[in-house]
Specification:
Elements (H helix, E strand, L loop, with lengths): L8 H5 L10 E7 L2 H9 L3 E8 L2 E8 L1 H9 L5 E2 L22 H11 L3 E8 L5 E7 L10 E6 L6 H17 L2 H4 L3 E5 L4 H9 L53 H12 L2 E9 L3 E4 L12 H8 L20 E4 L10 H9 L2 E7 L20 H21 L18 E4 L3 E5 L10 E5 L4 E4 L10 E5 L9 E6 L4 E5 L16 E3 L8 E4 L3 E4 L11 E10 L8 E7 L7 E6 L2 E11 L10 E7 L3 E10 L2 H6 L5 E2 L1 E2 L9 E4 L7 E7 L4 E7 L5 E4 L2 E2 L2 E2 L3 E9 L2 E9 L2
Parallel strand pairs: 7-8, 7-9, 9-12, 10-11, 29-38
Antiparallel strand pairs: 1-3, 1-4, 2-3, 5-6, 6-8, 10-12, 13-14, 14-17, 15-16, 15-18, 18-19, 19-28, 20-21, 21-28, 22-27, 23-26, 23-28, 24-25, 24-27, 30-31, 31-34, 32-33, 32-37, 35-36, 37-38
The structure holds N~2~-sulfamoyl-L-arginine and zinc ion.
N~2~-sulfamoyl-L-arginine binds next to strand 12.
């Protein structure tokens, strides 16, 4: 079933609401849902669909030029006053409503329950308090990491406020007390109270705050006003006061923004989730520029998951989605002055935007609802339940981000190479020191060195480029010796004339490296030649890509598949969804490729425009392959990396004594021990010859009964 591409996607495409002044809601008759698709494809913002006197109408938010464009396309356009809605819903309630409103409810909770602490962190232009509740101890302790859940930057996104309210209640009632005692959990259910109130009294589809702009229009977009990347370009936000994404006259010009900024200065969150609606996403920094990846991608990805192991399932009946797509925010569209980029830049906050609900469909009518989620307590409760595991994982992770575990079981990848060529990227742990030089051993046996570069945006991820001095086929082993990392390209293809054995896709001169790249523009499959990976382990796939999809149509995507039997059977290794207009590298771990003689990958474009270059198998296990090419299996380790105390290494029981050797990463033998049968484990405290070894990677090899086991152990203490 098709999904309908609105929300602000339409604004990003920029047909309407770009220039000109006042926006208004107009009704456009459509025959069926495909009419919504057509409008969305033209770039119009369809905020809702309404049935009136048996006719179907799309409600489009447009300015004068947008209305002209609609008429120019033959649409009949009628102004509509989005109804002021009576404050009498079953689920929803305004900010000001006596007794049951957001303000009254929070006050009642704080009065009734000693673990609820209610605080006003600022006031709006219309004088409403911006309310934050803290659940747990009353005082602030540096020993308790802050976790922030925030909602309703955008006035009309009501489900997000209910999500935050339910979460506050759940944390107070049900979060295990031992965990709560170790966290400061904060909830700000309405970041934009004036706008939120206005959606009940005047305009259900209002988005911005309610400040009067210099040109007489109203409102600044609260999610474009933060002081990071503010006004960087006019695509990620608008300089036009009447526009829906107006960024305001200056960074943090708005009282609501100032309240959040000072809140963060006083209580910097380790993790934050900013709830919005709609489109079924869990996105994270960066959002300011397509293709930019944050240094903490391993932590963000562990928590948000991947399309094959997503953190949030969508179990709403009639939803068009099965899960929320996780990824960098530019998968949706680029923004600047946006909250998560700011919190991450300013405070290192592991920050997410959750776009709740798919926008379709209301199970009672089958209707698309967009921002107007049904007033149905069962459905709203389902949204909450679907999103609760991710919220809980955020609370847990805040205590030890390096060991974060996602709601679907993903963990933080260890320090590693993320790409080998044409740029070598390594990601280290948060706050790791800069590594020494990068060196490359070339096919001719020469060594070339470069320094790893990092800047304030890529802190912790170090990059160096070989493109200028080395051809891909000359690169063999890449090393970041001081970080104990190395990687080796085992195969490489990039649509160049001498890349033989690849089939499918056209080639294009729009290349990342060399002269050509591959390009698919619809349904097309690119298949690699067969690669022999016998005697190889710790295999991963590197590729660089860009793509022109949409998160609103996730069934149009790229699928990366692996075959261990030369292409007879295939399994999914990764999915690629959404927009990504600049080249960036991807690493996909392929543990199932170890020792495989007939390894192949293929890239299946499903209605997806997709560029690929520098595709190849790589391995992290260069030394291991050199020292013990014939190891049969890996040792079992009680922890890796080893952060604290000793590590217990074990192997299958054997009737013979075992010989255990510890090597430096460069292959120097540091220690040898004998373990007497029937003991089949060794407790290692990180020393060799009585000497404490420095942090880094070591290779441990155990031989017993004619079998050989090995492990690469990271000391990180
Ligand atoms: O545009 C926004 O502020 C958010 N979407 S919404 O439809 N709720 O308005 C998304 C912000 C996420 N960040 C980026 N897409 N860069
Ligand atoms: Zn929003």
């Amino acid at each position: 079933m098709a999904r309908y591409a609105f929300g602000l996607l339409a604004l990003a495409l920029g047909v309407t609401a770009r220039v000109g002044a006042q926006l208004r809601a107009v009704e456009v008759p459509i025959t069926d849902r495909s009419g919504i698709d057509s409008l969305a494809r033209l770039g119009f913002e369809v905020a809702a669909v309404r049935e009136l006197r048996g006719e179907l109408y799309a409600i489009v938010i447009a300015d004068a030029s947008g209305e002209r464009a609609l008429r120019g396309r033959g649409y009949v356009v009628t102004a509509t006053v989005p109804p002021a809605v009576a404050d009498t819903f079953l689920v929803y309630r305004s900010f000001d409503k006596p007794v049951a409103g957001i303000r009254a409810t929070l006050s009642a909770w704080a009065a009734a329950d000693t673990i609820f602490h209610l605080d006003s962190i600022g006031a709006t232009i219309e004088g409403r308090p911006i309310l934050a509740v803290k659940i747990g101890a009353a005082d602030d302790s540096p020993g308790r990491p802050n976790v922030l859940f925030m909602a309703t930057h955008h006035a009309r996104e009501w489900v997000s406020t209910e999500m935050a309210m339910k979460l506050a209640r759940w944390v107070a009632d049900s979060l295990p007390r031992a965990l709560l005692a170790q966290r400061d959990v904060w909830v700000i259910p309405v970041q934009n109270p004036d706008g939120y109130q206005y959606t009940f009294t005047a305009d259900r589809l209002w988005r911005k705050n309610r400040r009067t702009n210099a040109d007489g229009t109203f409102g600044v977009d609260p999610n474009r006003n933060y002081p990071a990347f503010w006004g960087r370009d006019d695509i990620g936000s608008s300089p036009t006061p009447g526009a829906e994404t107006y960024r305001g006259p200056a960074p943090a010009s708005e009282l609501e923004t100032q309240a959040i900024v000072s809140f963060h200065a006083a209580h910097p969150p380790a993790v934050a989730v900013s709830y919005h609606t709609y489109s079924g996403l869990v996105v994270h920094p960066y959002g300011y520029r397509s293709g930019s990846l944050p240094p903490d991608l391993p932590v963000l990805r562990a928590l948000a998951g991947t399309d094959l192991a997503p953190a949030v399932s969508d179990r709403l009946p009639a939803s068009t989605l099965t899960h929320y797509h996780p990824g960098p925010s530019w998968n949706l569209y680029p923004t600047n002055g946006e909250y998560t980029d700011w919190a991450y830049r300013a405070h290192g906050t592991i920050a997410f935007t959750t776009e709740l609900t798919s926008g379709c469909c209301d199970p009672s009518s089958g209707a698309y609802y967009g921002f107007v989620f049904p007033d149905d307590s069962v459905l709203v409760e389902q949204v909450f339940r679907d999103n609760l595991p991710f919220a809980v994982s955020a609370i847990v992770a805040a205590g030890d981000l390096g060991n974060a575990i996602g709601a679907s079981g993903l963990v933080v990848s260890p320090p590693r190479f993320e790409a080998v060529w044409p740029e070598s990227w390594i990601s280290l742990e948060r706050n790791a020191a800069a590594p020494g030089p990068a060196s490359v051993r070339t096919a001719s046996g020469a060594t070339v060195t470069r320094t790893f570069q990092s800047d304030s945006l890529t802190r912790g991820v170090f990059r160096t480029t070989w493109r200028a001095d080395l051809r891909a086929d000359e690169v063999r082993v890449v090393r970041a010796a001081s970080a104990g990392l190395e990687a080796q390209l085992l195969s490489l293809g990039g649509a160049e004339p001498d890349d033989t054995g690849w089939a499918g896709w056209l080639t294009t001169a729009d290349a990342l490296a060399g002269q050509r790249a591959w390009l698919a523009t619809g349904n097309d499959t690119l298949t690699s030649p067969v690669v022999d990976l016998r005697d190889r382990s710790h295999i991963w796939l590197q590729f660089w890509q860009k793509h022109a999809g949409s998160t609103f149509v996730p069934e149009r995507r790229g699928e990366v598949q692996f075959s261990a039997d030369s292409g007879r059977t295939w399994t999914d290794a990764a999915h690629v969804v959404g927009a990504g207009e600049n080249w960036y590298p991807v690493r996909v771990d392929l543990p199932q490729a170890s020792g495989v003689a007939g390894a192949r990958v293929r890239f299946v474009a499903r209605g997806f425009t997709w560029w690929l270059d520098a595709v190849g198998f790589a391995t992290d296990s260069v030394v291991a392959d050199q020292v013990v090419a014939s190891a049969v299996a890996d040792l079992e380790l009680s922890q890796n990396p080893v952060r604290q105390g000793p590590v217990v290494m074990s192997w299958p029981a054997s009737s013979q004594d075992a010989r255990l050797r510890i090597y430096s990463f460069a292959g120097v033998l540091l220690a040898a021990e004998t373990v007497t049968a029937p003991t089949s484990e060794f407790v290692w405290d990180g020393t060799a010859g009585g000497r404490q070894l420095p942090n880094g990677a070591y290779l441990v090899v155990v031989e017993t009964g004619g079998r050989r086991y090995r492990a690469r152990v990271f000391l990180a203490r």
